[in-house]
Amino acid sequence: MIYVENKDLVIPGQVLSDDEYYSGRGTFKENGKVCSSLMGLVSLRNKKIRVIPLKSKYVPKKGDVVIGKINDVRFSMWDVNINSPYSGILPAFEVFGREKKELNKVYDVGDVLFLRVVDVDEIKKAKLGLKGRGMGKFKGGIIVDIAPTKVPRLIGKKGSMINMIKDKTNCKIVVGQNGLVWVKGDEDMEQLTKEIIHLIEAEAHTSGLTNKIKNKLYLAIDGELPPEEVEETEEEFVLEKPKLQNFKEELEEEEKEAEENKKEKEDKPNIAEVIEELKRKNKKDNTLSYGDNSNNSFILNNK
Amino acid sequence: MMSEMIRKDGRKFDELRPIKIEAGVLERADGSAYLEVGGNKILVAVYGPRESYIRRLLEPNTGVIRVRYNMAPFSVDDRKRPGPDRRSSEISKITADALRPALMLENYPRSMIDIYIEVIEAEGGTRCAGITAASVALVDAGIPMKDIVVGCAAGKVNDEVVLDLSEYEDKEGQADVPLAIMPRTGEITLLQSDGNLTEEEFAKAIDLAMEGCLEVSKLQKEALMKKYSTE
């Protein structure tokens, strides 16, 4: 006998089924009955009951990609806060190999890094590494904090949700499995993305979320609803651990794109920009100009 | 006869005071709950599991919980001297003991969970209300639990066993029996007794408090479901 259906909201201690079902994550067995140990949604598969929690803390797992903040610089390692009850360490040799350098010149307290969990020991301390492209320090951008269990929802089916947000806001987004999200783009867009991410977090357990978010994004950016699609595909409601999102590929692609964009820009300077620049130049010819100067003059020469 | 008896505040012998529970009221806490029982107003915040910053409390194979029960100076008629006292340290301890059997902290070794119970207004039965609110806040924080612990008191007033004592009944009454249970199995996690009761009266008080607990438990579940159900 089973007392719940797939995707039902359950609370701790609720009896889910009798003996013929297996107890999966988020459940326990007592007197032959499977009970929930968390507040979350039921996931049924092959007579196995699991409960996907609505809220939880990140527990490091080998192979995960996470975003961490340097907490402390020690003699041969960095202490990294990975938004978890367990702190991470980034040993110096993972960064420079056998070379000897001063640690705080490479990464200092407060730096935010994209890391991979190389190993987790028996006291759950996470050893971190930087193997893989795109790993390393973030420059600029903002960090958005969500519940780690909502990460799959933010990414969506095969990255549908995250890609949509990326396309629409033109922001770079990197999601760590510990529930931290790095966003970089236009300042307004960063804020919008942050709001959208929080909205996804708050409504992760509702269905048809992708369309809802899509409408919201279009309204916020274009001021109108998206054109009706002929093929309305109802987003299936999945809240599972994602297959590792390939950040490497994504970042590589993004880098490439960025380079291409740059080239394009250099090739054909935006007319509006040029006019702006000219105006500004005319206005304050004698004022000191800052860093971007070289670029400006380049555009002007081109003209 | 007995069921006809009306108490000072107009309740029947087995009637609870009006209860309001709300889950997830604090933004910055991992889990929180607000509870009103009669004149009691209680706010609970849960933080964690987080890295234990107190080395000596750390357990290598399981997580630990710490409870701080605190009454606001303005929570009672005469101003209460702020800070911990004998009574609040006792309640902190028994609350931790009442909640611990339900928690499954094996998954979070060497971590610590902090529970802060703040009594904003007190009107009798704050320890049971505190336990009730704390377990809602723990569920809200996403901490794995075997069951949602719930507390309720029974007592003896005017030679009559009654449920859920108010402040007046607590002071004027002959006995007070706070009880906390895990409602699914009916396991008792807290049982205290203050005052004089005969054996039968004691058994009756426990039965009554047990029923009260089950009643409150429904409200706890409702509050949690309300927080997260769609629309």
What would you say this structure looks like, in words?
The complex is a heterodimer of chains A (303) and B (231). Chain A has four domains: 9-53, RNA polymerase II/Efflux pump adaptor protein, barrel-sandwich hybrid domain (OB fold (Dihydrolipoamide Acetyltransferase, E2P), Beta Barrel); 65-137, OB fold (Dihydrolipoamide Acetyltransferase, E2P), CATH 2.40.50.140; 142-221, 2-Layer Sandwich (Ribosomal Protein S8, Chain: A, domain 1), CATH 3.30.1370; 250-302, no CATH class. In chain A, 32% of the residues lie in helices and 24% in strands. Chain A contains nine helices and 16 strands. Chain A has helices at residues 92-96, 103-106, 151-155, 160-169, 187-202, 209-221, 247-267, 271-283, 293-302; strands at residues 9-10, 15-17, 22-23, 27-30, 33-36, 40-45, 48-53, 65-73, 77-81, 88-91, 112-120, 126-129, 136-137, 142-145, 172-175, 180-184. Chain A has a five-stranded mixed barrel with strand order 8-9-10-12-11. Chain A has a four-stranded mixed sheet with strand order 1-6-7-3, with no helix packed on it. In chain A, strands 2-5-4 form a three-stranded antiparallel sheet, with no helix packed on it. In chain A, helix 4 (160-169) packs parallel to helix 6 (209-221) and helix 5 (187-202) runs antiparallel to helix 6. The longest helix of chain A is centred in the last third of the chain and has 21 residues, at 247-267. Chain B is α+β, with helices and mostly antiparallel strands. Chain B has four helices and ten strands. In chain B, strands 1-2-3-5-4 form a five-stranded mixed sheet. The longest helix of chain B has 30 residues, at 199-228. Chain A binds chain B through residues 9, 11-13, 15, 26, 28, 30, 35, 37-39, 53-57, 59, 85-87, 123-124, 147, 149, 205-206, and chain B through 30-31, 48-51, 60, 102, 104, 107-111, 139-142, 144-148, 182-185, 221, 224-225, 228-230.
